[in-house]
Design goal:
Elements: E1 5-8, E2 13-17, E3 28-31, H1 34-42, H2 49-67, H3 72-87, H4 94-113, H5 118-148, E4 156-159, H6 174-183, E5 189-193, H7 200-212, E6 216-219, H8 224-229, E7 235-238, E8 242-244, E9 249-252, H9 255-264, E10 269-272, E11 278-279, H10 296-299, E12 300-301, E13 304-305, E14 318-321, E15 328-331, E16 334-336, H11 340-349
Parallel strand pairs: 4-5, 4-7, 5-6, 7-10, 8-11, 10-15
Antiparallel strand pairs: 1-2, 2-3, 8-9, 9-14, 12-13, 15-16
Helix pairs in contact: 1-2, 2-3, 2-4, 2-5, 3-4, 4-5, 5-6
The structure holds 5-S-methyl-1-O-phosphono-5-thio-D-ribulose (MRU).
C-alpha cells in the first residue's frame, strides 16, 4: 500500500487517506494548517495510535510554517501553543503526545546550540517528522518479525479494531505480526471483529488484508465467545493505544471483553505495539484517560438514526485490559513477558537494543 500519510514539504500540504470513507472510496484530505490536522485527528480521517503520532509530527511541521509568519517571541509562543493544541487532539493514544514531545525536544536541542531562523525551524521539523515516519514503519516490521514466531501454520487469528498499515506509518503492529507470519510461509487466516461503532475491523482491517491476499473473515463483535467456544480461534493479536508501566493496556473498546474470553477459553491474547506506546509515567490502567466520542457515532449508521431520539448512549472509545490477561507484549525489542513491570522497565532502558528478548 502506498503511504496513507504523505507530506509535501515544498507545498506545505499533508495528504491523508480519508479512513472514514473506506472501503468504498479512496480519497485524500489535504491539510495545510495545524488546525486542519487537529480536525483530521479528531474526526478520524486518520486514526490508530502510531499513525496519529506521525500525523501530529507533520502537524508540528505545518505549525512551524504558520509561526514563521510572526516575529520574535510571538512566533515562538505561537509555535508552543500550536504544539499543545495538536497534542490535545485525542486523549488516549500516548503516541500523539509522544510525537509532539519529540518534535519539541529536537527543536529545543537545536536552539540550545544557537538561534534558528524560521526557515531553519521549518527544515528541522520537516526532517524530524519524516524520520519519525520512516522509523515507525521499520519498527513495525521488526516487531512483526518477533511476533510471527508466536503464530503457527494453520492458525486462525482474531484481531479487534485496525492495528494495520492504516493505523501506523505502514505494515502495522497486530497486522504486522500476521503479515510477517504469512511472509514466513505460515497459512494464517484472520477473523476481523467488526468493531462498533466506527467499524475499523469490518471496513479497514478487512480492506487491508483482502488487498494483501491474506484470508480474512469479518465477525460481529458479539460473536467472539461463540467462535472461541467452537475452537475457531487459536490466538488473539491486538494493537494498543497506551500501555501503562505495569503492562495494563488501553485499546479499542471491546478489547477487554475479547481478552476475558480468551482467558476463559485458554486462547493466548497478545498485544503488539512499539515501545513508543508504553507510557512509563502512567503507573497502571486506572490512570489512562479514556476518550468519549460523540453520541452520533452510536445513534446513527450511514447517516440514518438507529436509536430512538432522546435516549442517551455511552460511547467510550477505549477500554483497559489488565496485564494479567496478556500472554505477551510484542515490541521491536522482542516479546515482553510477565511480570510486565520489570520487563517494560528493562525494555525502555535498552530502547532500540536487543535487551528485552
Ligand atoms: O479510535 P482509533 O481507531 O484510533 O483506535 C485505534 C485502536 O484502538 C488501535 O487498535 C490502536 O491504536 C493500535 S494501532 C496500531
Amino acid at each position: 500500500m502506498d503511504s496513507h500519510i504523505r507530506f509535501d514539504a515544498r507545498e506545505g500540504v499533508l495528504h491523508l487517506l480519508d479512513q472514514r470513507r473506506l472501503p468504498e472510496v479512496e480519497a485524500d484530505v489535504a491539510c495545510r494548517t495545524p488546525d486542519e490536522v487537529v480536525d483530521a485527528l479528531k474526526t478520524m480521517v486518520v486514526r490508530g495510535a502510531p499513525a496519529i503520532g506521525v500525523t501530529a509530527a507533520f502537524g508540528c511541521a505545518l505549525a512551524a510554517r504558520r509561526a514563521a509568519a510572526e516575529t520574535g517571541a510571538d512566533a515562538r509562543k505561537r509555535l508552543e501553543a500550536e504544539f499543545d493544541h495538536i497534542a490535545r487532539a485525542r486523549p488516549t493514544a500516548v503516541n500523539l503526545g509522544w510525537a509532539v514531545a519529540r518534535m519539541r525536544g529536537v527543536l529545543a536541542a537545536a536552539e540550545a546550540r544557537g538561534a534558528l531562523s524560521p526557515e531553519e525551524i521549518v527544515a528541522l521539523l520537516d526532517r524530524e517528522a519524516y524520520t519519525l515516519q520512516r522509523e515507525d514503519e521499520a519498527l513495525c516490521r521488526r516487531l512483526g518479525h518477533f511476533g510471527a514466531e508466536l503464530l503457527h501454520d494453520g492458525d486462525q487469528v482474531l484481531t479487534h479494531c485496525n492495528a494495520g498499515a492504516l493505523a501506523t506509518a505502514g505494515y502495522g503492529t497486530a497486522l504486522g505480526v500476521i503479515r510477517a507470519a504469512v511472509g514466513q510461509g505460515k497459512r494464517i487466516r484472520v477473523i476481523a471483529d467488526e468493531t462498533r461503532p466506527f467499524l475499523q475491523g469490518a471496513r479497514l482491517t478487512a480492506w487491508e488484508l483482502a488487498r494483501d491476499g491474506i484470508p480474512v473473515t469479518v465477525a460481529c463483535d458479539n460473536a467472539c465467545a461463540h467462535l472461541m467456544s467452537r475452537g475457531m480461534v487459536q490466538a488473539v493479536v491486538v494493537g494498543a493505544d497506551r500501555i501503562a508501566a505495569n503492562g495494563d493496556t488501553a485499546n479499542k473498546i471491546g478489547t477487554l471483553g475479547v481478552a476475558i474470553l480468551a482467558g476463559h477459553f485458554h486462547v493466548p491474547f497478545y498485544v503488539a505495539a512499539p515501545l513508543s506506546t508504553i507510557d512509563a509515567a502512567t503507573p497502571d490502567g486506572a490512570a489512562i484517560p479514556i476518550e468519549e466520542r460523540p453520541a452520533e457515532e452510536v445513534t446513527h449508521m450511514g447517516g440514518r438514526r438507529i436509536t430512538p431520539g432522546g435516549v442517551p448512549v455511552l460511547n467510550f472509545a477505549f477500554d483497559v485490559t489488565p496485564a494479567a490477561l496478556v500472554a505477551g507484549i510484542i515490541t521491536e525489542a522482542g516479546v515482553l513477558r510477565a511480570p510486565y513491570g520489570e520487563a517494560i522497565a528493562r525494555a525502555l532502558a535498552t530502547r532500540g537494543g536487543e535487551g528485552a528478548r
